[in-house]
Amino acid sequence: MSPALNFTHDPARLSWIETANLPGADFPLQNLPFGLFTAKGTKAPRAGVAIGDEIFDLHAAARGGLLPISVAPACEQEILNPLLALGAPAWSELRARLSELLGADLQSARLRAQSAGCLVPMSSAQLHRPVHVGNYTDFYASSFHAANVGALFRPDQPLLPNYKWIPVGYHGRASSLVVSGTPVRRPRGQRKKADADQPVFDACEQLDYELELAAYVGPGNELGRPVSLAEAENHLFGVSLLNDWSARDIQSWEYQPLGPFLSKNFASTVSPWIVSLEALAPFRVPAFSRPQGDPSPLPYLAGAENERAGGLDVFLEVLLSTPRMRTSAAEPFRLSRGRFSSMYWTLAQLLTHHTSNGCNLLPGDVLGSGTVSGPDKMSRGSLLEITRRGAEPLRLPNGEERRFLEDGDEIILRGHAENPRARHIGLGECRGMVLPAGP
Ligand code: CA
Predict the structure, then answer these.
(1) Distance 105 CA to ligand 1 centre (A)
(2) Which residues touch 224 (CB under 8 Å, ≥6 apart)?
């Protein structure tokens, strides 16, 4: 079951923290995303919740007796995994309490003063990767992305026959998941030009990004015990932005027959705030409606609740800032817009499929959605698709051209959810700048 609506989603509720009430703010009272930060003058990272331009220090709140007993010990840890392991009823209890403490309708002057004492300005804090990620799996859940990429390599058969039956994925690398703002070094690797006799080992010439969401596993499952589709969302805590950096020239030489390897594992960037599935409850939509003639999912991937509300209506965008644009103080250029509701497979289907053989997931494991691309040209979530692997260079407003990323380019992912019945909430930003290849 997906989380239910309750008073924490009421769009009319405001916070006594004024920056949370600004129109279009990413972090209003209705969002309350979780992260990990270090404040000035402290050493150990602490769990926190973003509210306006402040961080509510969960460690301090737990120590001060402000939080429910069921979650307080987990909120005092130096990593979010223990909180993720608690499960939906505990998360929901915590969210209700935070909404109460930070709401403008809080009556108790004492509680307000105590809560105000737990605030840390976000601008003065260092944000970290919010969880220890034991395992990172990346899927390929957009049929539009799969078809765009497939068309470049197999014009006669863009989508392989398994695509509409099985959520395709591969095991990624958890150790190189970095938080937004971490520079990304251009990788070196083995690549071979189509007309060359043999490969060379050199700096990647086709560096790319991929616009994705990361889903964070909450309570894990026991080895050998699959998670049914009906149970799947009880094992999902929330989502953040994810940039799955990709070295296309290394990828095309190495990927057969076992799939991507060094072309993908040199860095993947996540945004620092995890927006809970409960916060996203007002933005649930039906699962993607399969085109006429597509097969129905096999029974273990099918369910009425998933069809009714398995989708997430999250808007995503990618922006590029080049060194020359920064020198001239030009705004970053929007490369694409995506909509997560266009994904062929839902997050619940990805998790259920992952565990269907008995594979055990752990709290904090990351499931990458795969590149979010849509049916139209403005919704292609990678340069590979936008420039058709460099064949159609992109012309930027200042006259620069890009086939792939150049040194000094910064990629910025943003995301938000909105509809007339809910308060706008944001996922924040996921940034990464390309550094030249090392020696
Ligand atoms: Ca990917």
Answers:
(1) 43
(2) 358, 360
